[in-house]
Specification:
With 237 residues, the chain is an all-beta fold. It contains no helices and 22 strands. It has strands at residues 3-5, 20-24, 32-34, 39-42, 45-49, 53-55, 59-62, 77-80, 87-94, 109-113, 118-121, 125-127, 132-140, 144-148, 158-159, 162-167, 174-179, 187-192, 197-201, 207-209, 216-224, 227-235. The strands form 5 sheets. A 6-stranded mixed beta sheet has the order 1-4-5-9-13-12, with no helix packed on it. The protein has a 6-stranded antiparallel beta sheet with strand order 2-7-8-14-10-11, with no helix packed on it. A 4-stranded antiparallel beta sheet has the order 15-16-17-20, with no helix packed on it. A hairpin with a 2-residue loop joins strand 21 (216-224) and strand 22 (227-235).
Length: 237
């Protein structure tokens, strides 16, 4: 297996703090192409695509995330100039202990923005000795990548004192959302793993009919007042 390291513009200097640094430069009208199975290392970010992958904008490393979020991340992020096409394969993010930003190292998970919202990969594997975290993604658009220890895919994630519970998961036909404090669901949005909105509605009695959906993994966003609940669910035949 081939491994290439690209340092096309400025590489981060050792011991020199920098807010932003471009680590892969793509000229306007061109693309950066990676063949399936090739290992690409760029400024501490390793990609091993399972299928051919390309992106058409530069990749920048920063000490802070660019897309708005209230979630605490490590002090390292990677952002594409424009959201990529769907990526399937392995992503490994290397980090330094000094970048943990108070997070629990053993609980770090991939935290990525798909151009619509931030998501976590709960199947991230960590190597706390070698300081890296690895995830396997399937058909996922990428805009920005970092690490966090807060699980946004937890069905019992709380926000602004409102507790949500989604079940059954996996499901064949219907989903139910339970909400605490007599709160109401104002709207739900279901997004496929390509980032496409396939359902947007006000659920009747907090039930969602997904019977017509194809089998696979989906993202659910539920809105209740100022609180937004985000989780994944699996549709099975």
């Amino acid at each position: 297996m081939k491994k290439y390291s690209y340092f096309l513009l400025c590489i981060l200097g050792i011991g020199i703090p920098k807010l932003h640094a471009q680590i892969v430069s793509v000229s306007p009208g061109s693309s950066f192409n990676i063949k399936a199975g090739t290992v690409i290392s760029a400024g501490g970010l390793d990609l091993i695509p399972a299928t051919d992958f390309s992106f058409t904008s530069s990749l920048t490393r920063s000490t802070i995330v660019s897309n708005p979020t209230s979630t605490t991340t490590i002090n390292r992020s990677y952002q594409f100039g424009t959201t990529t096409d769907s990526y399937s394969g392995v992503i490994t993010l290397n980090y330094d202990d000094s970048e943990l930003n108070g997070l629990t190292e053993s609980s770090l998970q991939l935290f990525y923005n798909n151009g619509i919202q931030w998501l976590t990969d709960t199947n991230t594997s960590n190597n706390t000795s070698a300081n890296y975290a690895t995830s396997l993604l399937t058909a996922t658009a990428l805009n920005e990548i970092s690490l966090t220890s807060q699980d946004l895919s937890n069905p019992n994630f709380e926000g602004n004192a409102v507790r949500f519970l989604l079940y059954p998961n996996p499901t064949r036909n219907f989903l139910t959302i339970e909400v605490s404090n007599n709160a109401t669901i104002d709207k739900i949005i279901v997004i496929d793993m390509l980032g496409k909105i396939i359902l947007e509605e006000i659920p009747e009695n907090n039930h969602i009919n997904v019977e017509r959906f194809a089998s696979g993994t989906y993202i659910l966003k539920a809105f209740s007042g100022a609180t937004t609940f985000i989780t994944k669910f699996i549709k099975i035949e």
